[in-house]
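User: Please run a holo structure prediction.
Assistant: Happy to. Please share the sequence and the ligand.
User: Here you go; the ligand is magnesium ion.
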Amino acid sequence: MKIFCVGRNYADHAKELGNAVPEEPVIFMKPKTALLQPNTPFYYPQFSNELHYEVELILRIAKNGKYIPENQASKYYDAISVGIDFTARDVQANLKKKGLPWEKAKAWDNSAVAGNWLMLSNEMLANPIHFSLNKNGEQVQLGNTQDMIFSFDHIVSHISQYFSLNIGDMIYTGTPAGVGECVSGDVLEGYLETQKMFELEIK
Ligand code: MG
């Protein structure tokens, strides 16, 4: 199982971190050890003093493929969830300054949270999908698929030009504006429309 992530897929988020809006999808990966397993506590990482949440829609790959044309891409994913691409922002800032890869900031153990999966329907995909994150009961991020720079189909097609996609792979499709810090004791809840997909307490 592979975890792909899209960076800067919402213009307002790219702006809030002072990044240019990309001309092609920014793709990075997390190893499977990054996926927080069910009923496992999430601990604040000891190497960071600035842990950020990034709420994202996640796609689940349902069919093996490579060089997938964009107009066929929707056949290659079947389920959606909401999760968090946890980021050690202080570590990332240091790495970015030096032009170094992001893994220490993004790909550490348990840095990928995934909620429950919902089977996708054509009807769902035909309309904007809204998702949000609450921190301690207050909404801190709200996004919808209409604001994505690169669509689900474009992302799947683009990734498959470089990497084989396999059943069970996951794609984190980017975060909207509103990313921010969290500390021990914070409770994070992710929503797809009005349905709660996960709840997590930072230990
Ligand atoms: Mg992200």
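The mean pLDDT is 97.
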